[in-house]
Design goal:
Length: 382
C-alpha cells in the first residue's frame, strides 16, 4: 500500500470512530455554487436543477450514510469575488462538500478558500488547466473534460480535414487562453503545419462580435474556432453574427460550449455548426445506462427539462461523491477525495467512469453537426 492510500485508510478509520460516536439523523449539507443570474444564469440554474434531481434520487435510495441530502445553493454571479463570498457562506453553514464551477476564474478564486476550510471541493464544469495543478486545492477533482483532452479532439479534426489556415475567437481568461493553447499544442504534437491567420480576444460578458468577426473574415480562414464559455449570451451571439458577416470556411465551437439551449437562442444560424462533447441524453451508449434513464426521468418530472452535458456533469458530481461516501462509510474529505482520484465507479449516469490520479475524469468525445436545429452525432468517431 503506498503512502497516499495508507493515509486515506487511516483517515477512514478515524472518521469511522468519530462517526459512530456522532451518529445523527440530521441531513448532510451539500453546497452548490453556480451562476444563477447574468448571461450564464440559465445554464447555472439548469445545472442546479440537475443536482437537485440527482439528490432526490439518492435520498429516495436511502441518502448518504442513512441521512438525507440537503442542498444549499448559491449564485456566484460569474464573478470571482462573489464566488469567494458564497463559498465562505457555505463553509459557515457546515457543508460536507461544495460542488462548483462554471467559470474557471471563479473556480480558481474559490479553490484556496474551500481548501483552507478543509471542505471537499468538486469542480463540475470549469475547464482551465490550473484547476488541477494542486496549488489552490491539494486534492482537486474535476468531471468536465480538460482543455488538453478537448484540444486533441479539435486538433485531430483540423488534421483530418487538412486545414492549414486557422482563426481563433478566444475568451480572454484562463479558460479561453488554455483552450487555444491546448489546440495548438496538439496540432504541433501531430506534426501538422498550420498558420494562425487571426486571433480575436474578448471578455466573458461580451455580446457584440461584429468587429472581431469582420477582422476574421478579412483573414480568409478555412476554419474558425470559437472559444466562449458564455453559453447564455456570448456563444449564441457569435453564431448569429458569424452568419451575418458571412464568415468563410467552417465555424467550430470549442468542446462543451454547445448545448440545445445555445442552439435555441442562436436559431437557424446554428445550422452547419460543428462541435464535440462527452454526453448526449438520447444516443447510445447513454440510452443503455439505467442510472442515466432514471436521472432524465426525474429531471423531466421535477423541472420539465431534458438534461444536457452540463446538467449531467453536475448530477454526476453529487452521484460520485455519494457513492464514495456510502462505500467508505464516512464524510471525511481526504478519504473521499482519495477514493475518487485514481478510482473507478460503476453504474453512474455516464456508465462506468474513471478518474486519473490528478483528479481528472477520463472522457470519450463525440463529434457532432447542428442540422435543422438539432445536434446530430457523427457515428464511428471519438
Amino acid at each position: 500500500m503506498n503512502i497516499r492510500k495508507a493515509a486515506a485508510a487511516a483517515a477512514i478509520a478515524a472518521a469511522s470512530i468519530m462517526g459512530s460516536a456522532q451518529a445523527s439523523d440530521d441531513p448532510v449539507k451539500v453546497g452548490v455554487i453556480f451562476p444563477l443570474s447574468g448571461g450564464a444564469g440559465p445554464q447555472g440554474q439548469h445545472v442546479s436543477h440537475a443536482i437537485e434531481s440527482m439528490a432526490t434520487i439518492i435520498n429516495e435510495q436511502g441518502g448518504v450514510l442513512g441521512r438525507q441530502i440537503e442542498l444549499i445553493v448559491r449564485d456566484d454571479e460569474s464573478t470571482p469575488a462573489v464566488g469567494v463570498s458564497r463559498a465562505s457562506e457555505l463553509i459557515s453553514e457546515g457543508v460536507s462538500v461544495i460542488i462548483e464551477g462554471w467559470n474557471s476564474p471563479v473556480t480558481l478564486a474559490m479553490q484556496p478558500v474551500i481548501a483552507r476550510a478543509d471542505v471537499l471541493d468538486i469542480t463540475a464544469i470549469s475547464k482551465a488547466d490550473p484547476i488541477l495543478s494542486g496549488e489552490g486545492n491539494p486534492l482537486p477533482i474535476r468531471l468536465n473534460s480538460s482543455n488538453g483532452q478537448d484540444g486533441a479532439v479539435i486538433a485531430q479534426y483540423i488534421v483530418d480535414r487538412g486545414f492549414t489556415r486557422i482563426a481563433f475567437l478566444t475568451e480572454n481568461d484562463a479558460y479561453g487562453e488554455g483552450a487555444q493553447a491546448s489546440i495548438e499544442a496538439a496540432l504541433q504534437a501531430l506534426g501538422h503545419a498550420y498558420e494562425v491567420v487571426a486571433v480575436e480576444k474578448f471578455p466573458f460578458d461580451q455580446a457584440d462580435f461584429r468587429v472581431a468577426l469582420t477582422n476574421v473574415r478579412a483573414a480568409e480562414p478555412e476554419i474558425t474556432i470559437a472559444i466562449n464559455a458564455n453559453e447564455g449570451l456570448g456563444m449564441p451571439a457569435i453564431i448569429r453574427q458569424a452568419a451575418g458577416v458571412q464568415l468563410p470556411g467552417e465555424l467550430v465551437a470549442a468542446v462543451g460550449t454547445i448545448a440545445p439551449s445555445v442552439i435555441g437562442v442562436a436559431g437557424e444560424a446554428a445550422n452547419g455548426l460543428i462541435g464535440a462533447d462527452i454526453y448526449f441524453p438520447d444516443i447510445e451508449p447513454f440510452t443503455t445506462y439505467q442510472a442515466n434513464l432514471d436521472f432524465i426521468a426525474k429531471t423531466e418530472e421535477m423541472f420539465g427539462e431534458t438534461p444536457d452535458k452540463f446538467m449531467a456533469l453536475g448530477a454526476l458530481a453529487i452521484q460520485v461523491w455519494a457513492m464514495a461516501a456510502n462505500e467508505l462509510g464516512t464524510l471525511d474529505k481526504t478519504a473521499i477525495a482519495e477514493r475518487i482520484r485514481g478510482g473507478t465507479f460503476e453504474g453512474t449516469i455516464l456508465g462506468n467512469v474513471s478518474f486519473g490520479d490528478n483528479g481528472q475524469m477520463d472522457s470519450r468525445h463525440y463529434l457532432f453537426d447542428v442540422v435543422d436545429g438539432q445536434i446530430v452525432v457523427r457515428t464511428g468517431q471519438n
